[in-house]
Design brief:
The complex is a heterodimer of chains A (511) and B (482). Chain A has 511 residues and is mainly α. Chain A is built from 22 helices and two strands. Chain A has a two-stranded antiparallel ribbon with strand order 1-2. Chain A is globular. Chain B is mostly helical. Chain B has 20 helices and four strands. In chain B, the strands form two sheets. In chain B, strands 1-2 form a two-stranded antiparallel ribbon. In chain B, a hairpin with a 4-residue loop joins strand 1 and strand 2. In chain B, helix 3 packs antiparallel against helix 10, helix 8 packs parallel to helix 12 and helix 12 packs parallel to helix 18. Chain B is globular and about 70 Å long. Chain B starts with 12 loop residues before the first helix and ends with a helix. Classes of the chains: A mainly alpha (511), B mainly alpha (482).
Chain lengths: 511, 482
């Protein structure tokens, strides 16, 4: 395909951001104009990204929509973009969630609206770019670039402890990433190119793989986030404005998982094999421990944040099972979590906008005065719990299926996490939506308005559609997952081949 | 050698041109007094630009002249372009500042010009004698510049401090030169490396001499452990002079160091690599940690510059062409970023007073969003966050270090860059997150805006089309490794 569709989708939001910078006029006019422009541009980006999904050929295992241009000619670094089944849905998730974020911030953001929209559009460019980049340095550029707008979003429009949270977010992620940078440089020097498809095929010595794997792990585990380096996430979520939380939970967390799938597994299969037990242990701890932590939270956002860590535990578990079901489950879980947790943060934002508190004890009996909201919230809650028929079920089920094949103990303990997840989510739902009436201002809150309904409608549809017909997604990720699985399990192939090899001398002897 | 011929001077066209211009302007200034600065300043800037253009279009093939005292090659020419551009930019920055602060002294641009000639000779020197002479020419001008605001206590203190410690470093350098001369019997770079090549047992005196010379030069680039003067001089000197100090002399001194370690001391690589590892690691660590507690932005930039010299030296460790190229790229990008930062620093004023304390920057994003966002972009770039140019500068020096097998040093480098990120972030936080600390004056200086916009455009455009600069750096570096 000659038309640079990926580049267009990636850089259209950036162009929109530049357009916003040029706006002139007094503050109120600029604010309303920037809202409109941001919505139109991000909306257009979403519609432009649809041809990517529709034109994606699920039978091809290789990268598609490839673009390649010279960038740093002497250093083997090129502008190389392309997607496969793994990145496709993350790109879609980014383009899908950003307009919703703009809509969600329509009324709640009143100061420095233009800057806010610029930050979000820059963020969108970096997010899409991260998932499309097929050059390691290009990937790093986008991956790290995300920090700048996110730092500003949390720091400027965040809550009371926003400075602390934004610094923690920035420095934590940066610390992990710079180690990855050193590893990347090493790999580029060895392979002579930064091209990801080439690096995937390059044989790094097992000893070196260990070091490289650890360096990449430092970055992705923080981004994921995995226990015990997850502590920046609750802080960032609590302080970030609603839309910031949505993007954080919906897309940014997926960069870690995507990184594992794009780099760690295919490039360092031996090291991944070696470290898998450690990852299992950390994942299981994350699932159980953070679920318990979520259980005792009174801050609703914090509760969802901890539940995110637990859900990401299933993702890392699934990825490092290194079998088809596990990895497919992990990817599906990421997509589903991207939708559900984004929607959950949005619904917390809805009640926060009305009552300006996230304290769970201040709410109750919302089913009475906010029936539509109650319905939406219950669907999302059940999705998060992993009820069959919602998207949450498919991912968790597949990931656990993969885990049981590898290690029954790990699988069993992780399954307990599903129960714990149900405990705190049902607790939240009972308190918020049902339960007794706690105070008058909560009882006086108005139901969703048209804008809010419009935001939730596509999310609810997705949650249910993905739950009922997961095959659309699974069909498209399957070839790429199969690719990874063959790459990480050369050992098993050898075992399969050995009998044939033994046969040959025998045959010769007979002859 | 045979007799003198005017042809021998032709590689030094630019230096001679600038010297003549400088002397004519000095005469004009001496007879017309301080009011003539309105003519002298633009004249100096224009002649600097003319010299830059002259170098650009000139011949870059390696040639040595004046009995091997001076060498002109791709490396020296590119470094001269950097030096002259840095000087021109720092003068552009100072035009309005000098007027606003009633410091219209006609000597200012002329001193800058003469120090520039010294620095041009530094990167062109091919002999220990011309090296020393060039260093002294530029240093003496810089000592005076640091104290040019002579009614100000801090400025005179800065000038004195810089002079005393600078003289000490010159002494160290001279002592080193004498040792090298004594043990090798020659002053010429080529003969020194020839001596080291043929000698069977390397005399320790040469090594000690080299160490003394590197110590003297480490002082000039403010690398640990010879960094103590930097914060005080940065803080005390008038801001445009600080900008000059931060942007230019270090590049020249670094150029000289590169010339020495790839030329006469190439065979002592094993020895100086150890020194550089130490200097680089300690500079990076000190620059990162000491910067954390600074409240004065000029002191902060001083510590940041110490750290940045540490990063630049990473690229020198492997002693290969690609490494030198990475250093050249690094300092080129670093100079541009600093020019922008200082431009903004001089633009931000309250009640006609420049602001130097970091908390006073609070609310800048509200009253002058353009300056605040540009400064934020420049600071993110200095942190090394992609997609800004600063990231690629760091990337290439780290790549050079890793390619040379200096993993641990590179890891220390990336870790300290995270620590250093904190103090840049703090500045951004003050500008964007904190409540305003009062109104700021509107800045009307066109020349400053020009520099700031140019700097911003560079750090963004470099990412899009980097190859021009990279190729230049490669050409410059490869001329050192024939």
């Amino acid at each position: 395909m000659d038309f640079p569709l990926l580049s267009l989708v990636t850089f259209l939001p950036l162009a929109g951001a530049v357009l916003l910078m040029l706006l002139k006029g007094d503050e109120a006019v600029v604010a309303s104009k920037s809202r409109m422009i941001a919505l139109v541009i991000t909306g257009a980006t979403f519609f432009l990204s649809l041809p990517i999904m529709l034109g994606f050929d699920p039978t091809v295992t290789d990268f598609q929509f490839i673009e390649k241009k010279v960038w740093f000619e002497q250093y083997g670094i090129s502008y190389h973009m392309g997607i496969d089944g793994i990145s496709l849905f993350f790109v879609m998730l980014s383009t899908f969630l950003t307009p919703l974020c703009i809509l969600a911030s329509w009324k709640s953001i009143t100061t420095r609206v233009r800057e806010y929209m610029i930050a979000f559009m820059m963020l969108e460019t970096f997010m899409i770019g991260t998932f499309c980049a097929l050059d390691a340095v290009l990937f790093y550029v986008f991956f790290e670039g995300v920090l700048i707008p996110m730092f500003i979003i949390i720091g400027v429009w965040g809550g009371a402890r926003r400075v602390y949270s934004s610094f923690k977010f920035f420095l934590y992620t940066l610390l992990g990433s710079v180690l990855m940078l050193v590893a990347l440089i090493t790999m580029i020097l060895l392979a002579g190119t930064a091209d990801i498809p080439v690096l995937m095929g390059y044989d790094f010595s097992p000893e070196l793989q260990t070091w490289l794997w650890v360096a990449f792990f430092a970055s992705f585990a923080v981004k994921m986030p995995m226990w015990p380096v997850h502590t920046w996430l609750p802080d960032a979520h609590v302080e970030a404005p609603t839309a910031g939380s949505v993007i954080l939970a919906g897309v940014l967390l997926k960069m870690g998982g995507y990184g594992f799938l794009r780099f760690s597994l295919p490039m360092f299969p031996d090291a991944s094999e070696f470290f898998a037990p450690m990852v299992f242990a950390l994942s299981v701890i994350a699932i159980i421990y953070t679920s318990l932590v979520a259980l005792v939270q009174t801050d609703m956002k914090k509760m969802i944040a901890y539940s995110s860590v637990a859900h990401m535990g299933f993702v890392t578990l699934g990825i490092f099972t290194m079998n088809t079901q596990g990895i497919e489950g992990a990817i599906f879980q990421m997509i589903s979590h991207g939708v559900i947790s984004a929607a959950l943060f949005l619904s917390i934002g809805v009640v926060y906008d009305r009552l300006h508190t996230r304290d769970i004890n201040r709410y109750g009996n919302l089913a009475k005065n906010m029936p539509v909201f109650a319905c939406v919230f219950i669907i999302l809650m059940l999705g998060s719990v992993g009820l069959p028929g919602t998207s949450g079920f498919v991912g968790e089920f597949l990931a656990l299926l993969g885990a049981f094949q590898v290690n029954t103990v790990v699988g069993t303990i992780a399954s307990l996490g599903v129960v714990l997840g149900a405990v705190y989510m049902l607790h939240l739902g009972r308190k918020l939506v049902f339960g007794p009436k706690v105070n008058d201002d909560a009882a006086a809150m108005t139901d969703l308005d048209l804008r809010e309904k419009l935001i939730f409608l596509p999310l609810i549809v997705l949650v249910i559609w993905l739950g009922i017909a997961p095959s659309y997604v699974l069909d498209r990720i399957a070839p790429s997952v199969a690719n990874i699985v063959t790459q990480v399990t050369p050992v098993e192939e050898e075992i399969l081949q050995t009998p044939e090899l033994e046969l040959t001398p025998d045959l010769k002897g007979i002859e | 050698m045979d007799g003198f011929s005017w042809i021998l001077l032709s590689p030094l066209k630019q230096e001679i041109f600038l010297a003549v211009v400088g002397m004519i302007l000095l005469m004009i200034g001496a007879f017309r007094g301080n009011t003539s600065i309105n003519f002298i300043m633009p004249a100096v800037i224009i002649s600097l630009v003319v010299a830059i253009i002259g170098i650009f279009v000139g011949d870059w093939t390696a040639i040595d002249t004046l009995s091997g005292m001076i060498i002109v090659d791709g490396f020296s020419e590119w470094m001269k372009i950097l030096i002259l551009s840095g000087l021109a930019v720092s003068l552009l920055l100072s035009v309005s500042w000098l007027r606003e602060n009633a410091m219209l002294k006609f000597e200012y641009p002329i001193l800058v010009l003469f120090s520039g000639i010294g620095m041009m000779l530094m990167v062109s020197s091919n002999n220990l004698l011309s090296l020393y002479m060039a260093i002294e020419l530029s240093s003496l001008c810089l000592y005076v510049l640091a104290a040019i605001n002579r009614d100000n206590l801090l400025s005179t203190e800065a000038g004195l401090k810089y002079f005393i410690l600078g003289a000490l470093s010159s002494g160290l350098l001279l002592f080193g030169i004498s040792l090298v001369y004594g043990y090798t019997g020659t002053l010429s770079f080529a003969s020194i490396s020839g001596f080291l090549e043929t000698t069977k047992s390397m005399p320790y005196g040469v090594m000690v001499g080299m160490i003394f010379m590197l110590a003297g030069l480490a002082f000039k680039i403010s690398a640990v452990p010879f960094h103590m003067w930097t914060p005080d001089v940065y803080q005390g000197a008038p801001t445009p002079v600080t900008a000059l100090f931060a942007i230019v002399p270090k590049v020249a001194a670094l150029g000289l160091i590169i010339r020495l370690i790839t030329g006469p001391f190439e065979l002592l690589a094993e020895e100086w690599t150890q020194i550089f590892i130490f200097i680089s690691v300690t500079s990076m660590i000190l620059g990162a940690f000491a910067g954390l507690v600074q409240n004065n932005i000029k002191r902060l930039l001083a510590y940041s510059s110490i750290g940045n010299m540490g990063y630049a030296m990473l690229g020198l460790l492997p002693s290969v062409s690609a490494g030198v190229a990475s250093v050249i790229i690094y300092v080129s990008i670093y100079m541009v970023m600093l020019a922008g930062v200082f431009g903004i620093l001089m633009s931000v004023k309250r009640n006609g007073q420049s602001i130097e304390n970091i908390p006073d920057f609070a609310g800048l994003s509200k009253s002058s969003p353009f300056l605040a966002y540009t400064l934020a972009a420049l600071l993110f770039s200095m942190m090394g966050i992609p997609p800004l140019a600063g990231f690629f500068g760091k990337f290439f020096v780290f790549q050079a270090a890793v390619a040379g097998g200096f993993f641990v040093v590179a890891v220390v480098g990336v870790l300290t860059s995270v620590v250093g990120a904190y103090y840049y972030l703090r500045l951004i936080k003050v500008m964007f997150f904190d409540a305003s600390a009062g109104e700021f004056d509107e800045d009307k200086s066109l020349s400053r805006h020009l520099v700031v916009v140019g700097s911003l455009a560079f750090i963004i455009l470099f990412t899009v089309m980097p190859n021009q600069l990279l190729n230049q750096a490669m050409i410059a570096a490869s001329s050192l490794f024939p």
